Each structure stands twice: as structure tokens, then as C-alpha cells.
Amino acid sequence: MYRISFIDNESLGDFFAEVKKRSNLSWMKLAKHIGSNRSMLDNYRKGKFLIPEDRFNQLLAFMDFSQRKNYIKLISKKDRNWGQIKGGLKAYKLNKKYFDLGRNKGNKDRSVKYEFNIQMPLTGDLCEFLGVIIGDGCTNKYRNLYQTQIAGDKILDKDYYLNNLSSICVNLFNISPKIVVRPKGIYMNLYSKRVFELLTKRFKIPAGKKCYTVEIPEEIINSSQDMINHTLRGMFNADGGVGFDKRSSYKNPYVRINYTSTSHKLIDQIHKILQEYNLPHSIHGRKGRKVKQVQINGEENVRSFIRKIGFSNTRHLKKLEYLNAS
After folding, report:
1. Which of 127, 242, 293, 309 could disulfide-link 230, Cβ–Cβ 3.0 to 4.6 Å?
2. Domains present along the chain, CATH in parentheses
3. How far apart are the C-alpha atoms of 134 and 125, rounded to whole Å?
4. Are 302 and 323 in contact (CB under 8 A)?
């Protein structure tokens, strides 16, 4: 079982504060709920001990999907024996010569399973794929395993994953991604060294945690408007949202498109692109919080967004069908 570590103490504190608020339980009752005790829960809250994955999932269950999605971006998973691994790394540094000698003897010739040119031309499909990775994806190397994963809502995103993203992966990389539906979401996995290299070497997308540093690659920013639009479409397909403000101050539900991120550079890039498109929008953020949001407000501006950028994820398209009829 994995252990859960937050990227910083502020995120850890925010998480437990939100759990306390959502659960409406005392710390004592919350500890019992996850099969622990108050003392151990305090250790988790203060970051003295990493949180076992099963207990973390029990706490996460108090959140709604949007919150779960945001907090999952702020964690990393460590093996249960990560302390032993740390000790092993120390031993490796002390005896590097002998470890490397044994490793070289044991290494076999390993060919790349899925071969393609990572310098392939920019296309709409490639840019949409990159946009999805920027929004909801991650890539990493685990020893000899290269994994790129995209995560979404198991109900709302299922059609997009099965009918759009899968085809894009086959067309671009000749890879049929492995799609897994679990209680907490739908996950698309590509096990490919070349995809990892495409993302990290060519487009400079960070491996592992990227929520604070991810940005639209410079190659995309310097490309054509069409390629930028496809990238934004992928981003909004994955991490964007369509909502309606139904407060009584509005005669009819007030439509909004939003994009939320903890990467301020990414929000700034979106802001500048929308400015160049003369597409009215607003930027929102709470003082002391890292999360920022771009909003496109009102039917006229939403229509303009659809014309210029658009969606290909049915979860968003269905909400906006009424615009075609009006």
C-alpha cells in the first residue's frame, strides 16, 4: 500500500481543514472513522507521518469530485517501504562502482516497444493531446517503466476518453491506451518511453508533479493560431468547466466557462491568448490560495469562445446545446 505525501504543508493544512468542514466531525470521531486514533491523526495533520493510501481515500471521500481532483494534484505516492529505499540509495552512493558492475552484467537489450518520431509535425490531434496532458495528465518514469496517465470523471468523461482520446492516441502513436474505470474515476494509461520523451524532451512538460509549474510549451505558443486553439481545446476539454449561475438576480441561468489551475504561468498564458482574441474574460483567485481561475462569462462571450476554440468533450457540449437552439 502506498503512503500519501502532500507537496507542501499549506496544501496539507488546507486538505485537513476542508475534511473537517465537510465531514462535520470532531477530530476524535474523524480518527475513528478512518480506523485510527486522535494521536495518529494529529501526526498526519502535522506532516510527521505520511498518510496510508486507504485512510487518505476515506478522508478524500468527504469531498466532491472537483475538490478530490484538485487535491489529488497536490500529492505524491511513496512506496510503503520508501524509507528502506532511501537507505538503499545511500548504500548505492557508497558502493556505486559495484552496483553498476552488477547492473551492467544483468542488463539485457531492451528495444522500444512503440516506435515513432517524437519530432512529428504539429497537428490538431497532437495539440489537443498536449492540452489534455496539461490539464489532466501526468507522465513519469518508474525504474524501467514509462507511464503517461490521464484521469477524469468516470461518467462524464467516459465518452470523450473512449471515442476521442483513444483514437487520437492510435493515430498519433499507434498505441491503443489502456483505459481503467475505478470507483473514483476513469484513467487512460500509455506505457511508452517515446510518449514520455515527446512530452518531457520536446515539449518540456515536467515529469511527475507539474501542477504549479506546467505551462503551454513554447513551441505551441510560437506556432499558428489553429495549433494554439487545439491546445486550448484539449485543456478546456480536460480541466475546464461549464456552469450556470442560477441566483435570483439573473433573469435566466447565467452561463460561464472556467479554467482552474495552480500554475499562475498557465493562467497568465490563457489570459494573454484570450486578450489577443479580444475575448472578454476575468481572472479570479482568493487571497492566500494558490488556485486561480479564468472565467468567460455570459452567452455572447461563451458563443465567441465556442467559435474560436470550442469543445470536443460531450460533457461540455451537452450543457451548451441550448445555444444552438436560441
Report:
1. 127
2. 3-78 (1.10.260.40), 124-211 (3.10.28.10), 235-325 (3.10.28.10)
3. 14
4. yes
